[in-house]
Amino acid sequence: MKCVLVGNYGVGNIGDEALKEYFLSEFPEIEWSVVSANTAEKRDTPRLPLGVRSLFTPWWKTISKIKHADAIVFGGGSLFTDIESVWACVIWRTYAILASWFGVPVMLAFQGAGPWKTGLGLRLAKKTYQSAAFISVRDEDSLRRLEVFRLSHQPTLSFDPAFAFFATHPRDTVGQRLVLIPRANSNEKFFEEAQKKLSGNFSDVRILLMQPDDTERRVGERLKAMCSSPTSVIELTSVQHLLDEVSTASEVLSQRFHGTLAAFAMGVPARSVPQHAGDKMDTLNERMNDGSARTALLTTVKTGADGLRQAMRGVSSL
Question: Model's pTM, two decimal places?
Answer without folding.
Answer: 0.90
